[in-house]
Amino acid sequence: MPSLRLCDALAAHARDRPGAVALVLGEQVTTYRRLADLADALADRLDRLAADRGRPLCVPAHKTPGTIALLVAAFRAGYAVLAPSPELGPAARAELTAQARCSAVLTVDDDGVLHRDTVVQDDAAARGFDVPDPAVAPLLLTTSGSTGTPKIVPVEAAAFDRFADWATGHFGLDAGDTLLSYAPLNFDLSLLDVWTGLRLGAAVVLVGQAAATDARRLHQAVAEHEVTFVQGVPLLYRLLTQDDVRYPHVRTVICTGDATPRPLLARLGAAFPRARFHNVFGCTETNDSFLYGIDPATAGERIPIGRPLPGVRALLVDDAARILDGPGTGELYVSTPFQTSGYLQRERNAGVFVPAPDGGPEVFYRTGDVVTRDADGLHWLDGRTDFQVKVRGVRTNLQEVENVLVTHPDVAEAAVVALPDPEAGYRLHAQVTRRPGTTLSSLPLRTHSAAHLPRHAIPSSVQVSDAPLPRTATGKPDRNLIKALHQKGHQA
Amino acid sequence: MSNLPQEIHAYVVGEFLDGEDPADLTPEFDLIESGIVDSLGLVRMVSHLAGAYAIPIDDIPLKPEHFRSIGAIAAFVETATRAAA
Asked: Which residue of A70, A124, A170, A175 sits 20 to 30 Å from the alpha carbon of A315, by its own alpha carbon?
């Protein structure tokens, strides 16, 4: 519950419209009254735990009414909450809880019973990390973390309220709406499809992990509950449009996380006959920054990210550190009314959260995205300034994947390249040279990767050989040649 | 259905391994954790199994655990086809 205003709104919904549906998960329907009761019961339990309010609680972001009620209870009681992915490995989670100085890890089971794991305090791990202030930033999200330890991003209550106000106004949302929550609860997308929905008193249909790739259950969730608002990555829309189904109740469709290919857009137009379509661009650090209204009937091969949202300042900075006034290509710097004040780890902020390049009063976030502004003022995303690509909507650093591969004792060298993929956006291919005399094959290397990387960062294909990697004239691995050879092998 | 595990093995190697050495692909090897079958791959596999083994997937609750390894897939197909028969 990212703000007190949200807490007050929830209390009002429970009082004024107790029977209205707040959450749906599968067959389980939770009204606003029930959600308030769950939160009250958990607040009592929290009270008895008497945890230190100066330290955050860690609540793994399981997508259940119990977890949402626990977050509500914790915020109301004045705690900051770190809400990491429930899929994060125990080692990575322990690192995060130590960094944020969490007092305990709390989970709620299906019977509403609170479970508490104590956390080993590790002052050395927390050195250089700010102490979260629950009055300012009650919710701590994390970046995806392609190395295994994500960065902690405090979400300020005031920033959340400004964001919820904008989204409510722009998409014309009210208590009569039913929002589909497809993204994991620890993603910033939940600030809109879960938390803004609850602030409004709308219904939120939660898609759990098991249903997320099940086209039949997704279709049911949207059709049976007469969902009016859908936000998701291309995979969601691929699954929803699989069988030429129509969703006449949907008024708003938001494409986000990745570029939506044109053939899919055409299907979207038919599947959602009464909807308006938007492409929304943003990241955990700044929340949404750009918006573009899509017309599926006239959309071209590429969809622009569009124009900055109201209150957002966007600057393009070229290689010579000049700010581009008109059309041109450069790195995108943004300042949004919704952005974090910085990563919890202070030294991470240097060079990333920077003074306004044009001397203005705002703090800008250096996105690392290469963006082109055309003559009409529309912005287009070209790529990254670093080794980052999006795999199934999640930002992934190729160098960090390489770093993990070469820690395997049998690996001599490794190069990871990103190949464009119509389904996933990009998929990763790893070319690996094993040490002489070893018999390493790709499967044990995948198991090794799985222990150190989140799933999206594990290469889709892994080729192991005894031959050294091809090199450029300057002696670096020739990634372009590796890419070309692999793609050629595919067509043959 | 004595050949079922071999059939599934051959399908996984042909469809997902893309020339990688399958020597270590045991019946227990975790296909999902290791990134061999991703969420899109899961969709493809379900549709293949439904067609190849006449499984009425609309009537069966599907869980990612059913497709975690070759052994699990074979067990799922066996149970599902028996239920449908």
From this structure: A170
